[in-house]
Amino acid sequence: MFKFYLVLLDKTSRTTNILYLELLLRIVHQIIKYMKIAYISSYPPRECGIATFNHNLLRAIGHDKVAVSDDSFVVAMNDAEGLDEYEYPKEVKYIIRQENQKDYIRAADYINTSLADACILEHEFGIYGGESGVYILPLIARLKKPLITIFHTILKDPNYMQLTIIREIAKHSSRIVVMSHRAVGFLTSIYGIPFSKIQLIEHGVPDLEAKIENPVKQSLAFKNKKVLFTFGLISRNKGLETVIQALPAIVAQHPDVMYVILGTTHPGVVKNSGEEYRDSLKRLAKKLNVEANLTFINKFVSEEELFDYLTAADIYITPYLNEAQITSGTLSYAVGSGAAVVSTPYWHAQELLADDRGRLFDFRDSAGLSLIVNDLLADKAKLSLLKSNAYEYGLHLRWPSTGQVFIDVLEEAVSKYLSEMEKAGKQIIEPDMMPAFSLAHVQRLTDDTGIVQHAKYGIPNLKEGYCVDDNSRALILAILAYQQNKSKGALELLPIYLSFIQYMQCEDGNFRNFLSFKREYLDEVGSEDSFGRTVWALGYLISNPPNNSYREFAKDLFLKSAGHFKNLTHLRGIANTIIGLAKYMEAHPYDEYIREQMDFLVAPLKASYKVHKTSEWHWFEEKMTYDNGILPLALFSYYEVSKDQESLDIGLESMEFLSQKTLADGYLNPVGNDGWLFKEGPEMALYDQQAIETMAMVLMYFKAYEITQNLLYIKEMYLCYQWFLGENSLHLPLYDHETKGCGDGLQPHGVNRNQGAESTLAYWISHLMVLQALESEYEYIQSGDLLSLQKEINNPSI
């Protein structure tokens, strides 16, 4: 037993003491080699192949008492709402109910506060809640431990959600483990996961030897029989009818053949259709006059019993119906027991049965199966050779050997994780994590009229037409893109959006909002929000023109609209307009008329804040709704022009309140539009979360940084931007790397896959603002004290 004492060398330096503590823990970790592992998986007594695998893995890893602690534990996945559904063994310390989202968050907290050194996640889409098991993502994203993920299923043709989930799990994993070479190829070519992150470890098998006196051989189904054998949970995709259809031809040559099917019907099948499939197999056997050659053993057996069955059988058969089986535990067990295996050529079987370790027949080919079986039963030498080859190969699959490989992977992951922790925090914005800038989807949505409002998935929905809101945002994006990288594509798009705005301006200077695809006006006058956003875009162009022609054109439209400024009554319309006027003032700082309009507009914004503010509620209205960051942003914009301290104070105070409500969990959780957040009411609506809300937060924090030079605001800006890339409540990215568009919102069970103009423009505007912030961060670092910078970023309270 070791005793360690931490001496606080400097009581005034919290940072120094933390560094010494981390160093000490690393020293202790090197002295005391054993690791404590947290396993996330289904677990016995639940009847599930993943549960059995995880139980075996825990025992195999725990077998090394030098490397792994006996205090490793399991977080068990329940397929029922009740916590007492199963009588779990003592190693199960926490239970997650599959469809209870809060359980996943609590489980992450439990693991993080435990002494676990690393986590192992068994992944199969069906054992986790939400669409395609999406509920597991918030758990792993919150983990503060190195994560090893074992993928039991890798789909060749995943849908968008399945593809996204696998990529997100891989992103958060220190190592990915798969059990076949084909799985490695799928992960690299289809899912884009780096080869260096993937480890191939074949499926483990029991470390058992055949008994001299096998009790199964004396059972009624086996005694004096030539036994064909299949085991596992029964469901239609197992193809058992193919074997029964082959039986007449087999029985004709070998009347003493018995086909034994061991296993219970899959719980999901029982729930939906009872024993319909099992009964249909019995009817088929009767129809073919082979019912006497078929035996069902309807139970879930222990591994020791299963091994007895496998070694008692003459031939083991897996007749799956298609190739899409990347891993089969039952096949691995059969090979590991030294069985003679005959199988359809699904992916795992092609690999595991190569080099004469088994025989293959085509899918649903009962005639081909009967020929192979009859040949093997008639030639004992061939049968013995298959069994011998399988047995020899199975020796290296046994759990003690497999467990040692996992221990090596775990030790590497822990070491790498500690090393990366040392390097963390040196830069707020990580440009390598950001997608490359692309106007592809914006260009796809844009025609010679303007940018189309909506898209069905990534395809423009022309039926919905256009709006001035989106074309105004598109104009801002085009300007930003041209400023950032002199984008020729952006410069070509800019006059389209500017022309659209001109087309939508009424004779009195106001703006319509909606236009049909046939270029027919759909309203007489737009909303105050759309008016304000258009003024903002025009002001932005006036202050950042690529040429004088565009500036003069925009200025004409801007001044023509000025008569409507004082008629605005809605706060967001006012706020958007103030931002546009502030941009105009950058180019025309001595324009007293526009300054007067700004003074007039900011008054109701400040007044509304004072009316609604209480000690517990620092906001402008009785509720937080949409585009919330625009309100503090407007006050910051006004402050830059006026230096009005009251506006700055209100802006900072309201921004801090907004941050408390939406950034408290360490990632952005914007107010959902399905209920909002009321001053006196229920909890904040979590969904639907909208991209424009995130864009407003990004712009707000960057402006706060520009005014205060507080680097913490860049950190919070980047945190908000990461919402688009998956740092959100579901840990699903809204940005689509294939289309270069952005999903239309975050909903309770996933991403809204439509990619309209509003969300895509919100993403790319946020993206370009982050790149601007990256330049500002670099300049700050070059001119400042790096140590002070790190304290400000990582420990702002010190």
TrEMBL record:
Residues passing through the membrane, by range: none
PANTHER family: BLL5144 PROTEIN, GLYCOSYLTRANSFERASE
Keyword entries, A-Z: Transferase
A GO biological-process term: carbohydrate metabolic process
Ranges for domain Glycosyl transferase family: 217-392
Name under which the protein is recorded: Glycosyltransferase involved in cell wall bisynthesis
Acyltransferase is among the record's keywords: no
Domain of life: Bacteria
RNA-binding as UniProt keyword: no
Gene Ontology MF terms in the entry: glycosyltransferase activity
